[in-house]
From TrEMBL:
Species for this entry: Carex littledalei
Highest classification ranks of the organism: Eukaryota, Viridiplantae, Streptophyta, Embryophyta, Tracheophyta
Subcellular localization: Nucleus
Name assigned to this protein: AGAMOUS-like MADS-box protein
Keyword GTP-binding belongs to the record: no
UniProt entry tagged with the keyword Chaperone: no
Domain K-box intervals: 89-190
Primary residence: nucleus
Length: 219
């Protein structure tokens, strides 16, 4: 039968602990020697016992040379890491400054579109800004007209359905090319004729106009 698995924990018995240390120390030194020979590697091993006794191995002439080599390699690695960190920090600082500049430019443009902070603009820049605003207003107005036209078409379709069903028509609504709202209502003649002479219709720009005839309101 094979040996059972040994639990890795501190050996409480002093004698057993010392025996195990000697066996494992010798095995570790042997493995270090084999590694240096088989792989042509520079190996340095330092072990202190629980009593403070030093055990060392090095395939170099002097273990101090291996220690000095380790210190130099560690210093170079630390220096390289510091350089990378500095470069990374500089990169993020530059990116932050660039983003702040872009935000400032956008804020300035927004102020110009609102009609503010125009004192430092040249006549050419003002003309260019005016053209951009006019184009933007034109696009907004066209979008509004299209939207209102779709609403008007829907109202006409609903009114056509009401006419076919015999229902009474609501007042007509329409919009001009600039998107202004008009309401057209038919006026019934009073005892003295129409309130606006020969006109039989009244245009209302966003509000109701009332015609008084013989003390009565004609809508």
């Amino acid at each position: 039968m094979g040996r059972g698995k040994i639990e890795i924990k501190r050996i409480e018995n002093t004698t057993n602990r010392q025996v195990t240390f000697c066996k494992r120390r010798n095995g570790l030194l042997k493995k270090a020697y084999e590694l240096s020979v088989l792989c042509d590697a520079e190996v340095a091993l330092i072990v202190f016992s629980s009593r403070g006794r030093l055990y060392e191995y090095s395939n170099n002439t002097n273990i101090r040379q291996s220690i000095e080599r380790y210190k130099k390699a560690h210093a170079n690695t630390s220096g390289s890491t510091s350089a990378v960190e500095v470069n990374t920090l500089q990169y993020y600082q530059q990116e932050t400054a660039k983003m702040r500049h872009e935000i400032q430019v956008l804020d300035t443009r927004n102020e110009h579109f609102m009609g503010n902070c125009l004192g430092n603009l040249s006549p050419k820049e003002l003309k260019h800004l005016e053209s951009k605003i006019e184009r933007a207003i034109s696009r907004i107005r066209n979008k509004k007209v299209l939207h209102l036209s779709s609403i008007l078409d829907l109202q006409h379709a609903q009114q056509s359905g009401m006419v076919s069903g015999g229902s009474e028509l609501d007042p007509l609504h329409t919009f001009d090319s600039r998107g202004n709202y008009y309401q057209v209502e038919m006026l019934e003649p009073g005892p003295h004729g129409y309130s606006h002479g020969q006109d039989q219709t009244a245009l209302h720009l966003g509000y109701d106009m009332k015609a008084n005839t013989s003390g009565k309101n004609l809508l």
